[in-house]
Design a protein that fits this description.
Strands 1-2-3-4-5-6 form a six-stranded mixed beta sheet, covered by helices on one side. The protein has a six-stranded mixed beta sheet with strand order 7-8-9-10-11-12. By secondary structure, it is an alpha/beta fold. Helix content is 28%, strand content 21%.
């Protein structure tokens, strides 16, 4: 059996290519939209992708399952479990609890494990050439390393009402009746790792085992003693803020993500064209340089989305295609870099990239306004804390309003335009993302707090309460 784990550090998302080396058949589980990585690996291994599936309707990224099935002619398998509100509305072969996909010597068995979502499936994988029982468990957003999937996302991001309590009850049953009935040796391979908003304390290693989670996971004692209420209370407490783009991802993944197909090469645009677009507000310009260079000088109206580990995440916070579908122009060193950026934006359904610019030279530029800590005055300024609710509760500036960076552009009507808005996060990166989004939306009195929260905290007397 061939088994490969693909992992994107930005979205903390894992997908899988599993193949039978005897027959050359392969399946991909939880694909992302840059499907070339699966095609290239399958080709290297002499495999043909004949099946594509996913564990559930994802909220944090736009699925590539439909794209991959369309490109390869593979059979697309989709869960038909759960309630009518959360069933796929595009075509695919239906999977139910106990359904099996056979690929040569390999058997992939669907297990209905609701809780994170009603339709959620996990997949037990048996390598028939070596064993008669499953040895691998693709758990999606059901069981992570050291944690389990949160049951509140339908409430937080998809318009549900109190679905979290039903979800918690279902997770309890899924753990008790399915996960913990498996042998200790079964390997657990989840769809997310540390940094994902699909749980609150995910481990940073790629995989675990049933036995390890049985012995050490925080939730295991609750299951062992049958304490469903204690489990529910512990599970729901302290869940991180859900970025509001999750609602768009849920809807698009349910209805069927748009097919990208073969994409044309991006063209390098002229400074004059970009300047005209910025002056007319007819395009979105993305400054992908590092924070120091953006703060020093950036084109008027540019969004700060630095190229690096958090590029996709920050883009999803700053651009909402359902509300603003203007063409996007990227600052990139060359066409190869621009294509890589475009691929990553596609992970979260930001597809309207028009072209790229290799330098900001010639564009009217401004520096970011930074407010020294000594000048903070919550009585006269609107202090905006764009950290998570958990971070805010740990300690915050007096009278600061907490609004997660991933919710700012969706809540502009709650922010004043007639007074200075002072934005901060923990150390500054997220604050610059949020501040640039506010400036691009027409807020002209936006300042970033020098040193952000840590800078403020360092200048407080030791006896002061955070």
């Amino acid at each position: 059996m061939f088994f490969k784990h693909f992992y994107d550090e930005d979205l903390a998302q894992g997908s899988y290519l599993i193949g039978c080396q005897t027959t050359g058949e392969a399946i991909v589980v939880d694909a992302r939209r840059d499907i070339a990585v699966y095609l290239e690996e399958a080709s290297r291994q002499g495999l043909k992708i004949s099946a594509v599936t996913e564990t559930h309707i994802h909220a944090d990224y736009l699925s590539g399952s439909r794209e991959l099935a369309n490109a390869t002619g593979a059979t697309l398998y989709l869960s038909d479990e759960g309630n009518a509100d959360w069933k796929y509305s595009f075509e695919g072969d239906k999977l139910y609890h106990g359904s099996r996909i056979k690929l040569g010597n390999i058997i992939v068995e669907a297990v209905h494990t609701p809780g994170h979502t009603p339709e959620h499936l996990s997949f037990l994988v048996t390598d028939g050439a070596a064993a008669s029982q499953p040895g691998y468990y693709l758990t999606g957003d059901f069981v992570f390393v050291g944690d389990i999937g949160r049951p509140d996302l339908l409430d937080e991001a998809a318009g549900g009402i109190d679905t979290r309590f039903v979800g918690a009850k279902q997770l309890f049953a899924s753990l008790r009746d399915h996960f913990l009935t498996l042998p200790d040796y079964v390997q657990v391979w989840p769809a997310h790792g540390a940094g994902s908003a699909c749980g609150k304390s995910l481990g940073a290693v790629a995989s675990t085992t049933v036995g390890y989670e049985r012995s050490f996971a925080w939730w295991a004692p609750y299951i062992e003693r049958g304490d469903e209420q204690g489990f529910t209370d512990a599970l729901l407490a302290g869940q991180p803020d859900a970025p509001l783009y999750f609602g768009r991802m849920k809807k698009q993944n349910k209805e069927g993500p748009a097919l990208l197909g073969a994409r044309a090469d991006l063209l390098e645009l002229s400074v004059q064209d970009v300047q005209q677009g910025l002056e007319q507000s007819s395009l979105i310009f993305v400054d992908t340089r590092n924070r120091a260079r953006h703060l020093d000088a950036h084109p008027v109206g540019a969004l700060f989305i630095p190229w690096g580990k958090s590029f996709t995440t920050y883009a999803s916070y700053s651009i909402s295609p359902e509300h603003d579908n203007r063409p996007i122009v990227l600052l990139a060193d060359n066409q190869v870099m621009a294509h890589a950026m475009r691929d990553r934006l596609s992970y979260v359904g930001i597809d309207n990239v028009q072209g790229y610019l290799t330098s900001t030279q010639g564009l009217p530029s401004v520096s970011s306004d930074v407010l020294p800590v000594k000048d903070i005055n919550p009585e006269q300024q609107f202090v905006l804390d764009v950290r998570t609710a958990n971070e805010h509760q740990t300690g915050h500036l007096p009278n600061a309003k907490q609004l997660h960076v991933g919710r700012v552009i969706y809540n502009l009507d709650t922010l004043p335009k007639d007074k200075m808005v002072v934005v901060h996060c923990q150390t500054g990166g997220r604050a610059t993302v949020a501040a640039s989004a506010l400036r691009a939306a027409g807020y002209d009195k936006v300042y970033e707090l020098e040193g952000s929260y840590e800078g403020w905290l360092a200048q407080q007397p030791e006896t002061a309460s955070a």
